[in-house]
Design brief:
Chain A: InterPro entries: ABC_BtuC-like, ABC_TroCD. Chain A: It is found in: Cell membrane; Membrane. Chain A: Keywords: Membrane, Transmembrane, Transmembrane helix, Transport. Chain A: Belongs to the ABC-3 integral membrane protein family. Chain A: It is a multi-pass membrane protein. The complex is a heterodimer of chains A (290) and B (249). By secondary structure, chain A is mainly α. Chain A has helices at residues 3-12, 14-39, 43-63, 67-87, 93-115, 118-126, 134-153, 155-163, 165-170, 175-193, 199-214, 220-245, 249-267, 273-289. Chain A has one domain (3-289): ABC transporter involved in vitamin B12 uptake, BtuC (Orthogonal Bundle), CATH 1.10.3470.10. The longest helix of chain A has 26 residues, at 14-39. Chain A is globular, with a radius of gyration of 20 Å. Chain B has a domain at 3-85 and 157-239: Rossmann fold (3-Layer(aba) Sandwich), CATH 3.40.50.300. Chain B has ten helices and ten strands. In chain B, 33% of the residues lie in helices and 26% in strands. By secondary structure, chain B is of the alpha/beta class. Chain B has a six-stranded mixed sheet, with helices on both faces. Chain B is globular, with a radius of gyration of 18 Å. The chains are: A mainly alpha (290), B alpha/beta (249). The A-B interface holds A 39, 41, 153-154, 156-157, 159-160, 162-164, 166-167, 169-172, 214, 217-220, 222-223 and B 48, 51, 53, 69, 72-73, 75, 77, 79, 83-85, 88-91, 94-95, 98, 101-102, 104, 106-109, 133-134.
Chain lengths: 290, 249
């Protein structure tokens, strides 16, 4: 199917419009939040929180409430648990993350398999963007507005506490609160991304576009815009491949973003492997000629 | 004279060990004080605890006779080089601009005059031509100057610098000490964690000598007497000759 036909289908099918809309929002917010996650050295934490959302989603299903609430609760609890274990024992942060999130994930799997068909589990884990309902779309939009609003309002505080937490603390910013708010935002982003990319691959949408942008600029503000744009491009093209070849949307979206990362990794003007090699070769040749 | 900083019976533990024990001293306004002592003496820890950046076991800290909280925004802290992520996507100018943040309050962005002031501060440390560089592209000394510019941008009354002279070039060291002296003349109070005994006397009016406990606090020439210094550097004594020798930690 050509891109043109994809656009035709887009006008024709409402489910595809909803899918595109949610994917674009997910691309934007994952891109934005991902910048802060990677700069704070919390990539692994992002992975942990996104997985830890699973039992919350399962319990919400069981109670018949919107999975948003359950997800945020188990996500934040896991973040607190990880902090508690690593601060109160010789267990290092990465060990605590490894223990906590796999346990939470396992609890989630047990609950879901006990009560529902494995098809639901499959969709939660890997996403099923073509089945986005109206209510999911509104939740995603709401989370998107909230996340963008928070980052715009607290940009200054996020910048200082990420770059130099000691300075932030010295003039009275509540670093701990900022950390836990960011964890709460992270769980919300995960919830918003459940249907587009699924729990397992959310972390890719958080890290890969942000890391790509990180290779392309020396300014945080630019990095955020770039990262969001890369997120959107990945979502749109990922959706196209998913729809055209009948593949899991999460996988195709993540692959597109990985491809963009590879481009930046090799060809970024300042950081790219290819230019670096070219420049050092040129320097060597010039020295030889002298 | 005005008492800018007063610390009373400060105790700090790290992982269950007491690393700072019973430190009490006070610093007059408009002075330049060096905090010296051997490696692991708790110099940085003491400074961080005094600023409530890490929890303390016990102790009082007063700034101009008031609580630290009231003065927070008027205190500039320059961290150790190792505390900073030098790959962070931020330019030299934007680092200095951070200095204007404390007074801005929530939801407010730096104005044009804030930006002009930040540029002024960058000029003071002689780094204005590097304004658009990423912070990690600079040399150690240049980075330290940029962080000093950030402290200047904060228009602080008290300045706390943690090991600003470690691993930097001579020119940068001279620029920094010159600016610190100017600040002192303007009535500011500056505390510097420092490890190079050879220059301690020429740089600072007062010295605080630590080795977990407080060994001595007083005028520089008084603290640098061999019999005082040996109390702190007892186990490094064999390396130490009276004055002029750099006891690296």
């Amino acid at each position: 199917m050509s891109i043109f036909e994809f656009f035709q289908a887009l006008f024709q099918y409402e489910f595809l419009q909803k899918a595109l809309f949610t994917s674009v929002i997910v691309g934007i917010i994952c891109g934005i939040v991902g910048c802060f996650i990677i700069l704070r050295g919390m990539a692994l934490m992002g992975d942990a929180i996104s997985h830890a959302v699973l039992p919350g989603v399962a319990i919400s299903y069981m109670l018949g409430i919107n999975f948003f609430f359950g997800a945020v609760i188990t996500g934040v609890l896991t973040a607190i648990g990880i902090g508690y274990v690593s601060q109160n024992s010789r267990i290092k942060h990465d060990m605590a993350i490894g223990i906590m999130f796999t346990s939470m994930f396992a609890v989630g799997i047990v609950i879901i398999t006990m009560m529902k068909s494995s098809a639901d589990l499959y969709h939660i884990l890997f996403g099923n963007v073509l089945a986005v309902r109206m209510s999911d779309m509104w939740i995603t939009l709401g989370i998107g507005v909230l996340v963008i609003g928070l980052v715009v309002l607290f940009y200054k505080e996020l910048l200082v506490s990420t770059f130099d937490p000691t300075m932030a603390q010295s003039y009275g910013l509540p670093n701990k609160w900022i950390h836990y708010c960011l964890m709460a935002v992270l769980t919300m982003v995960t919830v918003a991304s459940l249907q587009t990319v699924g729990i397992v691959l959310v972390v890719a949408m958080l890290i890969t576009p942000a890391a790509t942008a990180y290779l392309l600029t020396n300014r945080l503000s630019v990095m955020i815009y770039l990262s969001a744009t890369i997120g959107v491009i990945s979502s749109v093209f990922g959706l196209y491949f998913s729809f055209t070849y009948n593949l899991a949307s999460g996988a195709t979206i993540v692959l597109v973003s990985a491809f963009l990362f590879a481009l930046a990794f090799f060809f970024s003007p300042s950081q790219g492997i290819v230019w670096k090699a070219y420049k050092s070769r040129k320097n060597r040749l010039e020295l030889l000629e002298k | 004279m005005d008492e800018a900083l007063k610390i009373d019976h400060l105790y700090v533990s790290y992982l269950g060990n007491q690393v700072v024990k019973d430190i009490s001293f006070s610093v007059d306004k408009s002075s330049l004080v060096g905090i010296i002592g051997p490696n692991g003496a708790g110099k940085s820890t003491m400074m961080k605890a005094a600023l409530h950046l890490i929890p303390k076991d016990k102790g009082e800290v007063q700034i101009f006779g008031e609580s630290l909280k009231k003065w927070r925004k008027k205190i500039a802290y320059v961290p150790q080089r190792s505390d900073i992520d030098w790959d962070f996507p931020i330019t030299v100018f934007d680092v200095v601009l951070l200095g204007t943040y404390p007074k801005l309050g929530l939801f407010k962005r730096p104005t044009k005059s804030d930006r002009e002031w930040a540029y002024e501060c960058l000029k003071t440390v002689g780094m204005e031509t590097f304004s658009n560089r990423q912070i990690g592209e600079l040399s150690g000394g240049q980075q330290q100057r940029v962080f000093l510019a950030r402290a200047l941008a904060q228009k602080a009354e008290l300045f706390f610098l943690d090991e600003p002279f470690v691993g930097i070039d001579v020119a940068s060291e001279e620029t920094i000490i010159h600016i610190l002296r100017e600040l002192k003349k303007e009535g500011k109070t500056i505390l510097v964690v420092h490890h190079d005994l050879s220059k301690a006397e020429s740089y600072f009016d007062h010295l605080l000598l630590l080795n977990k406990n407080m060994i001595h606090y007083g005028a520089s020439e008084e603290v640098l007497q061999p019999e005082v210094i040996t109390k702190a550097y007892a186990n490094q004594f064999s390396f130490l000759q009276p004055k002029g020798v750099n006891v690296t930690s």
